[in-house]
Design a protein that fits this description.
The protein is an all-alpha fold. Helix content is about 70%, strand content about 0%. The chain is built from 7 helices and no strands. The longest helix has 27 residues.
Length: about 180
Amino acid sequence: MAEPKPDRFAAHRPIWRAVAVGAGIGVALGLLVVLLGRLLQHGPPIIPTVGVPATVGALLQLVRATQHVMLPPEPTPVGLETRTASHALRLRQLERRLQAASVDGAKFDWGLRPMLSQLAAERLRHRHAITIRREPETARAMLGEQLWQMIDGPSDEPSRPLSKQQLTALIEAIEAL
């Protein structure tokens, strides 16, 4: 006994049905326009008047039927080891930046100053509801002159290297905010 041949379009029947429905609606609209045109003594060409809506309807239904709902990707569990390794890597990067800033003022300007400025601005915003751009006088009073100069200091000329004590003082001042 011979096995029945599988229908290669069986899995896609709903898509083809949707396309057929769209084409049918398009043909119906096109014919309605042709009939209205004939009644009003204006005979539009039948092929484009029926074919364009049928094609557009079929394409719209094809797109609609083939769209899949995208589920958000499942979150990958991050274990304690991964977080610890990530923190250790970030701490090593920060340590290298601090070391470079104590040797080269330009490295402080490019690598450390933006990060410390952002940290100070976030501390002011979260703990005191002060935004540096909106309330510069209040922010300057809260930060103190040393931190204010670090944030708002001239960026045209490179800074001189900061000693470990100066870097420690800056970080402690930010922590105290």
